[in-house]
Amino acid sequence: MKFFGIKKNMLAFALVAVIAACCTGTIDVCAAESVNTDATVTITAQVGKDDTSVFAKSFEGTVDINLYKIAVVDETGNPIISDSYQNCGIDISVLNNSPKVADIEKNIVEPAVKAASGKTADAVITASRKDGSISGQISIANGAGIYLYVPQSVSDEKNNYSFVPYIIFAPTSDYIVSGVAGADETWKYDVSFIIKPQETPIIVEIPDDPTPTHGDEIVHWGEDIIEMESPVPLFGGNPKTGDSIIPMLACGIGLLFGLGLIAWYFSLLGKNKKIVEE
Predict the structure, then answer these.
(1) 159 contact partners, CB below 8 Å, separation of at least 6
(2) Which residues cross the membrane (predicted)?
(3) What is the pTM of this model?
(4) Which of 18, 132, 149, 232 sits 20 to 30 Å CA-CA off 171?
(5) Which range of residues forms the domain containing residue 215?
(6) Sorting pLDDT into bands at 50, 70 and 90, what band is 222?
């Protein structure tokens, strides 16, 4: 890699400083190595160490995080909007003015999310629980650039989880992140970001009247699901079977007749016994 004097790119500092939640300020102009635009970057997604959310503690599934390369980076660290995201309302110049998170969301993230809708992700990180924490990573050849990351919504038995999309700059350096004089100025091609879950409890609605109005309706009662194959009420009412009452009457009459024959038989048996004894 060739080394030559270049100015520290203020865009990179502003972006990474916001993402890393570090202090912002003015960085002195000094020499640094150029960005290797042909290098492979490794991007890691993870849950914060201090995250005490239900997702961080108990989610056992996987989360797919789509990465969209909305800008490339030249050798000086200067970002240039990718061709497929030109004229989409993305304003990278906002990074020149030590922007707040809200500024980046309004001028870069929101229009980038709209522009990326329907596009195939440039890469996908699949995060899962490992050693008690959720994380995942991917390596991208010739990957220097700004990425929009969009974690996909997931759910478990009790909650739905959504996530906040944002952007990440790759590569970066300790000097750019911290702004501290004397910090390491070497470009680092292994970068990471924290996914921030928002959980919504799954509410099971119990109907006031669990009786279905259609034969194939599914009735939710508590946590059980009962599939009805006929319009027979669960509680009260009379079943509408469409059967005639005549067979029921015939069976009843037959039953009474049979009981009468049995009684008549035992009556005759008793009389015959008396005659024999006399």
Answers:
(1) 54, 55, 199, 200, 201, 202
(2) 245-266
(3) 0.63
(4) 132
(5) 204-260
(6) low
